[in-house]
Amino acid sequence: TEVKLAPCSLVLRSIPRPTPKDGEVLIKVHAAALNRADLLQRRGLYPPPAGESDIIGLEVAGTVDGLGPSLKGNWKPDDRVMALLAGGGYAEYVSVPEELLMPAPDNLTFCQAAAIPEAWLTAFQLLVKQGEVVLVHAGASGVGTAAVQLARLFGAVPVVTAGSREKLRLAEKLGAAAGYNYKEESFVQGVHDFTGGADVILDCIGGSNWEKNVSSLAVDGRWVLYGTMGGRAVEGDLLGRMLSKRGRLLCSLLRSRSLQYKADLVRAFADRALPCFSEQPATLRPVIDSTYKLEDIAEAHRHMEANRNMGKIVVTVTPQSEETP
User: Signal sequence: where (predicted)?
Assistant: First the structure.
């Protein structure tokens, strides 16, 4: 029923502390960040992969609390870490394969670090090339703010869509070369006026945007779909129009990827991007919209569902999560 699907259906309960298995590290969670997938899972539309925790939450930051057998890394108790998860983040403790662990930058709070793994790794998969124009939908979202900064880091040119002038200003401050308020203007015309067509489109909207996306795409362009907030159904000549552009439609879900894929992605991100969070001044920075206590998780979900956030919504699990190291 709708009551069960509402944010108020989220409840806190006590369960046994997880025990790290072979190759796993137990994290004492200080902060966890929200993702759109969390809302879908709450509504029963995005179950966890087989064998994974049914507790919601895909990214956390905290400290190492326990070490499982057969670890290869040099992890130590109380190390500051952040982790990509397939589930289990809304908790005081979570056990994680060590391959999905990254050191949290010393200059970031736990709240800031928790905002990195899922959103930034999703954007990092783009691997855009120097000079390419990248159209980022929801440019002020967690993934959007990451994609804009990573595109700039790799020498690409990000342009964005968003639903308010305030969100566009944020994206432009982060490096977007242009921004379009989809509620007030045609981003198709804007993209063509700016560049003639986008080489890459990073799209979390899906169905309702398909015609505009194809119209915005450059010949030989790539349309990367990682969400369907605007619906899954498509009516019309999608295949014919994509064929005429020689376009490629790539679909990306990070949660269901293999451990090996995620491990390779984490390793590449740690090598190429992670040091940029610690530079002075930092080249990359996570954008935090708001923080909520774990007991206020329902309100955090309502805030995301209202599309009010600019950047990441973070849940604090310990009082120290917002303190600078």
Answer: none
Rounded Cα distance between 311 and 308, Å, is 10
177 with 149: CB under 8 angstroms? no
Give Cβ neighbours of residue 264 (< 8 Å, ≥ 6 apart). Answer: none
Q: SS3 for 67?
A: strand
Cα separation, 104 vs 110, whole angstroms: 8
Q: And the tokens for 286? A: 């996570």
How far is C-alpha 83 from the geometric centre of its chain's CA atoms? 13
Contacts of residue 172, defined as CB under 8 A and 6 or more positions apart, other chains included, come to 160, 178, 179
Q: DSSP letter at 273?
A: T
The CA distance from 67 to 27, in Å, is 9
Backbone angles phi, psi at 76, to 5 degrees: -130, 155
Could you give the count of Cα atoms lying within 13 Å of 101 in the half-sphere of its Cβ?
26
Q: For residue 162, what are the CA distances in angstroms to 34, 55, 76, 166, 188?
A: 19, 31, 42, 9, 13
What gap in Å lies between CA 153 and CA 156, rounded to an integer? 8
pLDDT tens-place string over residues 158-214 = 999 999 999 999 999 999 999 999 999 989 999 999 988 999 999 988 878 888 999
- Report residue 121 as tokens: 């790794």
Alpha carbons 57 and 110: distance in angstroms, whole number: 15
C-alpha dihedral, 134 to 139 to 143 to 149, nearest 10°: 60
pLDDT-based confidence at residue 266 (cuts at 50, 70, 90)? very high
Nearest to 202 by CA among 237, 236, 239, 252: 252
Ordered structural domains, the chain, with CATH: 24-118+256-316 (3.90.180.10), 121-251 (3.40.50.720)
Which amino acid is it at 62? G
Give the Å distances, CA to CA, from 116 to 105, 165, 303, 314: 11, 25, 19, 11
